[in-house]
């Protein structure tokens, strides 16, 4: 929902029509970074969080589609298939 809103500048019902301050929308990749590398940097944890990399904490989800590659109006259709916490599948 958050990434859809950041990219499309609408809620999940596509309101308001045409988007809210559409010129403030970001790319799907920039929205994804806002949920991954951005918070890690702001909490001074960029050396252990925010990326899928050897020796980094492994909290992540597997999505049903690549949100950086689908049309932006299809981002909201993305489902979480798996969730990992500390490298262990929990869902």
Which secondary structure elements does this structure contain, and how are they paired or packed?
Layout: H1 2-8, H2 28-35, H3 37-42, E1 60-63, E2 80-85, E3 88-89
Antiparallel strand pairs: 1-2, 2-3
Domain Amidohydrolase: 2-87
InterPro entries: Amidohydro_3 (IPR013108), Metal-dep_hydrolase_composite (IPR011059)
Protein name: Amidohydrolase
Overall pLDDT score: 94
Span from first to last CA? 19 Å
Sequence of secondary-structure elements? HHHEEE
SS field, number of helical segments: 3
Number of strands: 3
Structural class by secondary-structure content: alpha+beta
Instruction: Categorize the overall geometry.
Output: globular
**Strand order of the main beta sheet, please?**
1-2-3
Helix content: 10-25%
* Beta-strand percent range: 5-15%
Task: Walk me through this protein's architecture.
The chain has helices at 2-8, 28-35, 37-42; strands spanning 60-63, 80-85, 88-89. The chain has one domain. Helices cover 23% and strands 13% of the residues. A hairpin with a 2-residue loop joins strand 2 and strand 3 (88-89). The protein is α+β, with helices and mostly antiparallel strands.
Which key terms come to mind for this protein?
3 strands; Amidohydrolase; alpha+beta; hydrolase activity, acting on carbon-nitrogen (but not peptide) bonds; 91 residues; Metal-dep_hydrolase_composite
